TrEMBL record:
Residues 1-18 form the signal peptide. Keywords: Hydrolase, Metal-binding, Protease, Signal, Zinc. This is Peptide hydrolase. It comes from Orbilia oligospora. InterPro entries: M28_fam, Peptidase_M28. Belongs to the peptidase M28 family. M28B subfamily. The keyword Zinc applies. One of its GO terms (molecular function) is metal ion binding. GO terms for biological process: proteolysis. Its cofactor is Zn(2+).
Length: 477
């Protein structure tokens, strides 16, 4: 990463001043309990088991997850805790029918443009297949773009490489089809994750209707099309309006300067087909462990510390956090010094968000590079490899990097959703057995170290500058 020599000296001096003999970062880290981390992971896993195998936004498992977090927080007299209610439009599916040449196929949940909801439709059109231009689809995820898709429903092979920001397929939109049917071709069977598809659709910047089917059905229809058979597909969908009511859970220290707030967050919900233990009960448990450590009363932060467990982080990417930011007053926004995000931190690599943009070319607001270095130096001191993490815009940190919401120094940890990082990402096997509690403990202690330094010495490390919307836009944020 790129950090100037003067910045490094400043950071080292600030870290040193943050270590009074009475209570050091190491002592704060020693308050992190692996037993407590495991206990919370077990609780979230049991919640999923009791609620149709998930803790998804808008589902009973999410409400139970909120209650679990509140039950942990409400016992403290050193913190003030509350829930923030919000709602979002949704749809009930009344009819979902997919037929090809009169034969019924099992279509999965329809998904809208850029995470939007389903709408009523009845499409009948010839079925066309888009073939890939390379067999190495995870490294070269591009179609053969010669297929005319105008006026057709396109059958498309979705390769799930578990890395939507780097290797996800790019749909050719040079000719606009009436709709898409996706099926997965390799690695993980059947279920295409909403986050992957939503990210891809968002990049096209064109709305279209799509659903997805099983791998076996997709391969069968592809083979028939390659053999020259003419196939006519009909996709019917009827919906009724609905709304999802949900909550963020927030707690903050009663002590500390209220005009200087360190905010840490993690999305609390899982995917609809997953218990979501690594993604993201691990991040939720990390915050609870930090809460427990502070609640012992030995750590005396100079700045106020606020924790947030966000709703809608999985289904809508950053719904709960954006609602939170939108409803802040200007003074409340200015009082937030920085935001730290924790996502998928119980396995994978020791991933640190690329604050200075030296790896991927997209950097955070000034101060983000200092946060990156705090984490990077910690892992390096432990003899652990560090991997920069790209800002994909696919987690709650985005709410604090957007000119339309808030611009703050941002950082945090992300273990990765690549196949090798987490083969159970968005799958039913993302249960308790998928988590490595030792890995989570290391990440939690790294977070404790960063929190200790930033909450004690923030003014010396990163200057506090009130957010200026015009200046941020001129700077390209």
């Amino acid at each position: 990463m790129k950090v100037s020599h003067s910045t490094t000296i400043l950071l080292c001096a600030a870290v040193a001043s943050a270590h009074p003999a009475s209570f050091t970062s190491e002592k704060f880290q020693s308050l992190i309990s692996q037993k407590s981390l495991l206990s919370d992971l077990k609780a979230f896993d049991q919640i999923a088991s009791n609620n149709n195998g998930n803790r998804a936004f808008g589902e009973p498992g999410y409400i139970a997850s909120v209650k679990h977090v509140r039950s942990r927080l409400d016992k403290s007299n050193r913190f003030k805790s509350w829930t923030q209610k919000f709602e979002t439009p949704s749809s009930n599916i009344e009819l979902l029918s997919l037929t090809v040449n009169g034969k019924s196929y099992s279509g999965k949940m329809p998904l809208g443009w850029a995470g939007g909801e389903a709408r009523d439709l009845d499409i009948t059109a010839p079925l066309a297949v888009l073939d890939w231009g390379s067999p190495g689809t995870c490294e070269h995820p591009y179609y053969n773009n010669n297929t005319d898709t105008t006026g057709k429903i396109v059958l498309n092979r979705w390769v799930n490489c578990h890395n939507p920001g780097k290797h996800s397929p790019h749909v050719d939109m040079s000719s606009t089809p009436l709709g898409y049917i996706f099926y997965e071709d390799n690695y993980e069977p059947l279920g295409v994750s909403k986050r992957s598809i939503s990210n891809m659709v968002k990049r096209t910047e064109r709305p279209f209707d799509f659903t997805y089917m099983s791998r076996a059905d997709g391969i069968e229809l592809t083979s028939r099309l390659h053999a020259g058979e003419e196939l006519i597909a009909r996709f019917q969908l009827k919906t009724s309006p609905n709304k999802i009511e949900s909550q963020n859970v927030i707690t903050e220290t009663k002590a500390g300067d209220p005009n200087k707030v360190i905010l840490l967050g993690a999305h609390l919900d899982s995917g609809i087909n997953s218990p979501g233990i690594n993604d993201n009960a691990s991040g939720a448990a990390l915050l609870l462990a930090l809460f427990d450590a502070i609640n012992q009363g030995k750590f005396k932060p100079k700045n106020k510390i606020r924790f947030a467990w966000w709703g809608g982080g999985q289904k809508y990417l950053n719904l709960g956090s954006s609602h939170y930011v939108i409803n802040l007053t200007k003074k409340e926004t200015d009082n937030i010094l920085l935001y730290l995000n924790f996502d998928m931190v119980s396995r994978g690599h020791f991933g640190v968000y690329d604050g200075d943009g030296s790896r991927y070319g997209y950097y955070g607001y000034p101060g983000s590079e200092i946060i990156e270095k705090l984490f990077e130096d910690y892992f390096t001191s432990m003899g652990l490899p560090v991997r920069p993490v790209h800002w994909h815009g696919d987690s709650d940190y985005y709410s604090f990097m957007s000119p339309d919401l808030a611009i703050k120094p941002v950082g945090g940890l992300h273990g990765g959703d690549g196949l090798l990082d987490d083969p159970c990402w968005q799958q039913t096997c993302d249960n308790l057995a998928n988590a490595n509690v030792t890995h989570l403990e290391i990440n939690t202690k790294a977070a404790a170290h960063a929190l200790y330094v930033l909450s004690q010495t923030y003014k010396e490390v990163i200057p506090l500058v009130p957010y200026n919307h015009t200046a941020a836009q001129m700077a390209g944020y």
